[in-house]
Write a sequence for this structure.
């Protein structure tokens, strides 16, 4: 089962390697990991997408909580939540195909952010299903490159991962 | 007044109550060593950093205090890695201080630079790289706090050379601010009551205790709980001493070479109260044969130990001592005679197993049996010595034939199984507990791995006794090759070995070779008279003796081989 885990960490030396090392050392899978500062510069939130049965996920959460620099761990996929990832897609586009591609982009609510004579760069945000569908439709035109962020997620409602006290 | 980083460090150690530490100097540590030169902290110079850290570990296990050791940058630090991992596996509180090249050189492959924080990351409880002299006091205070609380473990502090030279005001922190670190001490009362209710209703209950009982010093609480409830107690290998080894409720230790009764009993209980144990594979055997019908309650200070290997029905997170005290406060509210007759039958069944198949060996043999040496040490020391072990057959026989009265009496590398651990650990234990007799029950192979520490024992007049069960084999390897590899003794034969008597004497230590059974006890008695130096006893034992019972790899607890 796929789980999305939010981890609030102290921005201390080596914290990212402690977390990624925990996953590799114990044989847990990381599908994606994204991390950045919160509103308070001394903390970061990591969003980790992983897979495993219930026992594995329970261990992952417990092992994460054991790290001294980890303040809070939440399996947001067990709550109502919103998840997004962003892709930058470079696709072949010439005068003939460009308008067709624009149509597709607008259907998927993407944004064109760069145009050359024979290519476009599109920004598209969403859950992975939507993005996969988008890529599939673009495929025949010739995708040159795709760069994607990992998933980020936030729980619905008024509670925050950054409340740890 | 401003002090150098080195002075701040040493003063911080003193404030943490350190009176003894182990260390080996090197270029980047010269400033620290210059400060230590004037310090009242006693410094022990091992002859190899691995010896130093195992000695710190043995000191910590014997005394319950935090063990402290130094190693220089690069090779000094990498020589500590086995010792760090060893301490992590067995939950031993250590503060490991490593030299590091100057901050401005880090990352440039400087002379004797090693990323020791990176190298040790998977085997530490936590680690720090000092980045300003101002933070030294806070880091040291936190390091000792983290090492010694919750589930204990090693904390590495990396000390760049320039940080030791730069100056700052000495400010001792008044409190510890670690928002991500709050080990639970007291258990959830509702869960404790639930556990007691299940224990009350069980017909075939056992208590399965591990090293957590030793670490928390809750042996009296453990014993009381067993006595009040009448529940038999089985320990893990490192749980030995959690209740007295001679107690009528103590069945023995389970696992690969544990006793028959403990292993048989673990296939059948209807309820297990597990206390401070991590259900290691060496203890449980194949998991589907481990207590398949039992409801399990588990008390542990480390939540990740609960349901890691075996699914737990009643988790109780907390310090063993605190939770056992809570349980004892409730225990009178339950009826412990509820299933009296079923319980009596259960205990009788266990006792019958034990009677049928106790730990044993050929007592009539003329040759020295290794088990006889351990038994003789037990007899001569009246069960009161601290026993350290190496790894292999010697270790198993030490566990089988010495009965431990109390916690911190049995010191062995359980999780990592580090050959070469026992002798330096014995040195540390003796330095920590000079009034006690300390033995290293050794294998000839393992002893070779850290015997340079005889020199250390000489220098500081440490009267440890080493009892080499010399089978001229990597005995445990030979046993497996004998049992599972068609007697193909690939690289296990140690025919070529030093004359251990002369070797001891070359250091100025006492060496003895014992070739006859009738000389065994006398030699041990003789060794106890020597108070100022180590004694190396080379017991020439039956070379081909195997350890039994044995649960072969992949078998269940009740599928032991008995011969
Ligand atoms: C550092 C290390 N290397 C290898 C092993 C694997 N090993 C386990 S027991 C053993 C043999 C130990 O021989 P010895 O010390 O003579 O003890 P004996 O079994 O003969 O009592 C070996 C090689 C180990 N546990 N530790
Ligand atoms: Mg041997």
């Amino acid at each position: 089962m796929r789980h999305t885990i939010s981890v609030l960490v102290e921005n201390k030396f080596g914290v990212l390697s402690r977390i990624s090392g925990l996953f590799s050392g114990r044989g847990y899978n990381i599908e994606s990991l994204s991390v950045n500062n919160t509103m308070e510069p001394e903390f970061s939130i990591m969003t980790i997408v992983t897979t495993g049965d219930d026992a594995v996920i329970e261990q992952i959460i417990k092992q994460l909580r054991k790290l001294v620099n980890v303040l809070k761990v939440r399996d947001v996929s067990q709550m109502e939540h919103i998840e997004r990832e962003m892709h930058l897609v470079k696709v072949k586009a010439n005068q003939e195909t460009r308008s067709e591609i624009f149509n597709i982009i607008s259907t998927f609510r993407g944004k064109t952010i760069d145009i050359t004579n024979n290519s476009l760069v599109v920004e598209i945000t969403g859950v992975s299903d939507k993005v996969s569908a988008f890529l599939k439709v673009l495929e025949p035109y010739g995708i040159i490159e795709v760069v994607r962020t990992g998933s980020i997620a936030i729980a619905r409602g008024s509670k925050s991962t950054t409340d740890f006290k | 007044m401003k002090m150098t980083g080195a002075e701040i460090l040493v003063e911080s150690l003193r404030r943490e109550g350190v009176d003894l530490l182990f260390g080996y100097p090197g270029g980047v540590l010269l400033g620290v060593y210059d400060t230590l030169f004037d310090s009242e902290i006693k410094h022990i110079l091992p002859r190899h950093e691995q010896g130093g850290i195992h000695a710190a570990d043995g000191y910590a296990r014997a005394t319950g205090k935090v063990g402290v050791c130094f190693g220089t940058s690069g090779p000094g630090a990498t020589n500590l890695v086995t010792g760090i991992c060893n301490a992590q596996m067995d939950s031993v509180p250590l503060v490991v201080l490593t030299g590091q090249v100057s901050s401005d050189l880090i990352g440039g492959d400087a002379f004797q630079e090693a990323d020791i924080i990176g190298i040790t990351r998977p085997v530490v409880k936590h680690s720090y790289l000092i980045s300003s002299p101002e933070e030294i006091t806070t880091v040291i205070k936190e390091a000792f706090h983290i090492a010694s609380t919750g589930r204990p473990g090693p904390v590495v502090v990396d000390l760049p050379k320039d940080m030791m030279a730069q100056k700052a005001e000495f400010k001792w922190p008044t409190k510890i601010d670690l928002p991500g670190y709050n080990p639970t001490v007291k258990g959830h009362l509702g869960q404790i009551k639930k556990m007691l209710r299940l224990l009350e209703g069980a017909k075939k209950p056992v208590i399965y205790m591990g090293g957590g009982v030793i670490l928390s010093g809750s042996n009296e609480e453990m014993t009381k709980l067993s006595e009040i409830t009448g529940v038999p107690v089985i320990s893990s290998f490192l749980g030995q001493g959690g209740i007295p080894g001679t107690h009528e409720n103590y069945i023995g230790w389970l696992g690969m070479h544990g006793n028959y009764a403990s292993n048989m009993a673990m296939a059948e209980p209807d309820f297990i109260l597990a206390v401070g144990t991590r259900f290691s594979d060496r203890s449980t055997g194949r998991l589907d044969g481990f207590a398949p019908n039992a409801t399990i309650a588990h008390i542990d200070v480390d939540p990740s130990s609960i349901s890691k290997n075996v699914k737990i029905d009643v988790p109780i997170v907390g310090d063993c001592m605190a939770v056992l005290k809570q349980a004892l406060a409730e225990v009178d509210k339950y009826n412990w005679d509820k299933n009296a007759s079923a319980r009596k039958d259960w205990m009788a069944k266990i006792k019958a197993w034990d009677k049928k198949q106790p730990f044993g060996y050929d007592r009539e043999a003329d040759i020295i049996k290794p088990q006889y040496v351990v038994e003789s040490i037990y007899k001569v020391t009246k069960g009161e010595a601290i026993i350290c072990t190496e790894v292999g057959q010697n270790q198993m026989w030490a566990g089988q034939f010495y009965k431990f009265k109390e916690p911190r009496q049995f010191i062995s590398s359980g999780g990592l199984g580090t050959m070469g651990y026992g002798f330096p650990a014995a040195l540390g234990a003796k330095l920590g507990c000079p009034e006690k007799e300390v033995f290293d029950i050794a294998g000839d192979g393992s002893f070779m791995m850290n015997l340079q520490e005889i020199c250390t024992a000489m220098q500081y007049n440490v009267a440890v006794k080493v009892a080499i069960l010399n089978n001229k084999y990597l005995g445990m390897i030979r046993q497996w090759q004998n049992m599972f590899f068609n007697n193909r003794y690939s690289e296990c034969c140690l025919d070529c070995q030093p004359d251990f008597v002369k070797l001891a004497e070359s250091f100025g230590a006492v060496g003895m070779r014992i070739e006859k059974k009738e000389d065994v006890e006398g030699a041990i008695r003789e060794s106890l008279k020597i108070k100022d130096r180590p004694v190396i006893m080379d017991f020439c034992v039956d070379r081909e003796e195997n350890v039994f019972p044995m649960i072969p790899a992949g078998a269940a607890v009740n599928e032991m081989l008995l011969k």
